[in-house]
Amino acid sequence: MNIQIFDSQEQLDETAAQYLIDTVKHNPEAVLGFATGSTPIGIYDKLVEKHHRLGVSFRHITSFNLDEYVGLTADHEQSYAFYMNKHLFSRIDLPAGQTNLPNGMADSLNSECKRYDQLLEEHPIDVQLLGLGHNGHIGFNEPAEGLIGGTHIVQLQEKTRDANARFFDSKDEVPTEAVTMGVGSILKAKTIILAVRGADKADIVREALFGPITTDCPASLLQTHSDVIVLLDREAGRKLDL
Ligand code: F6R
């Protein structure tokens, strides 16, 4: 793994954005995998800045998001569709028809999972951006006895709902289910960028990168991938012996 530790969030965001920009410059038709949550916001701001300042175009890329809550419409402020439009899609020249998120409002969620897997099959991801949950989740693949490879419906753990309650008026409003890409699909990405910030993630960062490979910590499966770039701020990396 290529582990890089930064003194400032600014540097981390800049580095992650530059990897994505280089990918698009090298291949204007690249397929990018995006994440949501608090970590990528600064990275998306940098992408927007580079789009305007350097004239980098996203016109021909295709994007896939990792996950979406079940039961939130795309215009709900806490849906990941809304988040992506707000932080990235509406600010760059990526045509709406080339962005993909699971539809958590689909009549048949099982058919929706199959549809998403089919699209992923047709558009292999070049670079997948990931954040890390406090319990080791990636996407919404929560710790479990077994993990599911493809897109599936997941019950969110209380720890995850607690962590995400900050975005809602109350915890009761946090959905209990989500649709997520599976770990198998995530690991198919040619390159994975894992970005993590904050002292509260230091233990899980160590466990994910250097602990046993176990479904109890889904991010530990990243150790089996040959091209993972880990971008950490000082606090998130403070428990690593490098
Ligand atoms: C969201 C996602 C999640 C988050 C993780 C960390 O699309 O995939 O796995 O990356 O929960 O969230 P933050 O960045 O808010 O700490």
Q: Layout of helices and strands, plus pairs?
A:
Elements: E1 2-6, H1 9-26, E2 31-34, H2 41-54, E3 62-65, E4 67-69, H3 80-87, E5 99-100, H4 109-122, E6 127-130, E7 152-155, H5 158-164, E8 177-180, H6 183-188, E9 191-196, H7 202-210, E10 228-233
Parallel strand pairs: 1-10, 2-3, 2-6, 3-5, 6-9, 9-10
Antiparallel strand pairs: 4-8, 7-8
Helix pairs in contact: 1-2
Question: What attributes characterize this protein structure?
Answer:
242 residues; alpha/beta; Rossmann fold; seven-stranded parallel beta sheet; three-stranded antiparallel beta sheet; 10 strands; globular; binds fructose -6-phosphate
* Spans of at least 5 consecutive residues with low confidence: none
Number of helices: 7
The shape is globular
Q: How many runs of DSSP E, i.e. beta strands?
A: 10
Return the domain count: 1
Structure summarized in a few sentences:
This protein is of the alpha/beta class and 242 residues long.
Structural notes for this entry:
There is one protein chain. The protein has 242 residues and is of the alpha/beta class. The chain has one domain: Rossmann fold, CATH 3.40.50.1360. It is built from 7 helices and 10 strands. Fructose -6-phosphate binds next to loops.
